[in-house]
Amino acid sequence: MSLLLKNGRVIDPANSVDAVQDLLIADGKIEKLGKNLAAPAGAEVVDARGKLVCPGFIDIHVHLREPGYEYKETVATGTRAAAAGGFTAVACMANTNPVNDNGAVTDYILARARVEGAVRVYPIGAVTKNLKGEELAELAELAEAGCVAFSDDGKCVMNAGLYRRALEYTLPFGVPVISHAEDATLCRGWAMNEGVVSTEIGLPGAPAAAEEVMVARDILLAELTGAHVHIAHLSTAGAVRLVRDGKARGVRVSAEVTPHHLVLTEEAVRTYDPNTKMAPPLRSKRDVEALIEGLADGTIDCVATDHAPHALSEKEGEFDRAAFGIVGLETAVPLLLDRLVRPGLLPLPTLVARLSHDPARLLNLPGGSLAPGAPADVTILDPERELTVDPAQFRSKSRNTPFGGFALTGGPWLTIVGGTVVRL
Ligand code: DOR
Ligand code: ZN
User: Fold this and answer.
1) Is the pLDDT score of 376 beyond 90?
2) Separation of 96 CA from ligand 2 center, angstroms?
3) Rounded CA gap, 107 and 190, in Å?
C-alpha cells in the first residue's frame, strides 16, 4: 500500500525542510520526499496543494480516562478526538481508576489501544501507589510494561524525599518524571489564579508561587539526581524564568505549555463559566506573554493539551464545586494557528516542531520526523480552513471547553497514522 501526497508545503523542522514537495509513503513508512514524484502502481494520490504536510503531532499530556471513568472518555473516543484534532499519538496520564500504578493496568490500556485506538497510545505510569504520594508505585514493572514516563499528574508529590527516590530509581530506565507542580499547602480550596480578578469576583485563589515553589524544588532535585524532570502545564512567568535558568545551568529539565494557558487569561473567569476552571488556573496577561516567549525561544519544549474530559454534571453549577480541567484535543491546533501563528507571535515551523519533533524527543518516542524510513505518521493542515468551534461535534465524549463559538482560521485536514489515513 502506498500513498502519494502531491505538492504540499512540507514542514519537517527536525530535518530543516520547508518546501513545496511530494511525499511518498509505502508500507507504513516514509519512502521519499522530492519534486514531481511518480505514483507507484496502485498508489492512492492526494492533492495537498495549499496544505501543510507535517510530522504527526504528538500530545504528551492527555487523560483518556480508561479504565474507570468511561463516562468521561475512553481509549476509543479519546483517540478519535486526537485524530480529528490532527494528533497521531498521545501519551495518557495515570489518574484512572484503578490508577496506572502497576503493569496490569498498563497492559489493559495498551490492549484497548490495540483493539480500538485510532492513533498511537503511550501510557504514563504513576510515581506513587494510588497517587497518594506515600510510597512508590511499581516503577520497574511499569517501565517493563511500556510506560514512557512517570507522573502523578493531577496531584503534586509533596514529599521531596520520596520524589528524590523516584527520580533516582527511574534514572536507569531513561524516561522522564513529569511534575504536576502545585504546592498543596500554598493553595488549599482554590478555584482560580490569586490576584486582583479573584479578589474582585470573590473566588479563592492559588498564587503563582504555589507553582513556582515546586518548579524550583523539582529543578533542584533534577540537578541533585541527574534525572530528567519534565514540568507539566507551565503557567507562570516565574516558572518560565526558573526553567530557563535551570536549562542554562545544564539541568535536565524540560517543560510543556497548554493551548489554553497561551490564549486565555484569568479575565475569562469573570464569566463564572466552570469551563474556565482548570489546574493550573488561567493566569495574568504578563504570564501569557512570558509563556509565548518561552515557547518561541525553546525554554518551553512543547505544547501539550492536558485534555481533561469531564461529564456535563461535573462542570455545571457553582464554579467552586466544578471539576478541574477542559478538553483540548480538538481545539488545540486551530487555536494555535489562529491565535499564535496568524498574528505573528510564533513562527509556523516553530509551532510544528513544538508539536512533533520536540515531544517525541522528550519521551523518546518514534516520530517527529519525515525522514525516509521513519514511521509514516503525518499531520496535514489546511491553513485557510474556517471553523467555528462546536462542542456538539466533538469526537470526544465530553464537551467541557471554554472555546465553544470561537471562529478560527486554520486547522487539521488529514491525519495519517502508520501510512493509513484515519477515517473518522
Ligand atoms: O485541570 C486539570 N485536570 N488538571 C490536572 O492536572 C488534572 C486534570 C484532570 O485529570 O481532570
Ligand atoms: Zn493533566
Assistant:
1) yes
2) 11
3) 36
Distance 308 CA to ligand 1 centre (A): 6
Say whether both 416 and 291 belong to one domain: no
pLDDT in tens, 61-76: 999 999 999 999 999 9
Please confirm, yes or no, whether 152 is among the known catalytic residues.
no
Asked if residue 106 and residue 29 are part of one domain, the reply reads no
Question: Once rounded to an integer, what is the mean pLDDT over residues 7-13?
Answer: 98
Residue 281 CA to residue 324 CA, distance in Å, equals 9
Query: How far is 96 from 218, CA to CA, in rounded Å?
Result: 24
Helix (H, G, I), strand (E, B) or coil at 103: helix
Give nearest CA residue, ligand 1 atom 4: 279
Whole-model pTM: value is: 0.98
What domain count does the chain have? Answer: 2
**Distance between CA atoms of 144 and 135, rounded to whole angstroms?**
19
CB-CB contact of 80 with 118 (8 Å): yes
User: For residue 42, is it within any domain?
Assistant: yes
The CA 323 to ligand 1 mean position distance, Å, reads 8
Q: Is the pLDDT of residue 1 over 90?
A: no
Q: Can you give the residue range of the structural domain that contains 391?
A: 2-52+375-421
CATH code (residue 401):
2.30.40.10
- The CATH number assigned to the domain holding 196 equals 3.20.20.140
Residue 187 shares a structural domain with residue 216: yes
Ligand 1 — pocket residues by CB below 6 A?
63, 95, 153-154, 180, 278-279, 306, 308, 324-325
Question: Of 306, 358, 377, 382, which one is the catalytic site residue?
Answer: 306
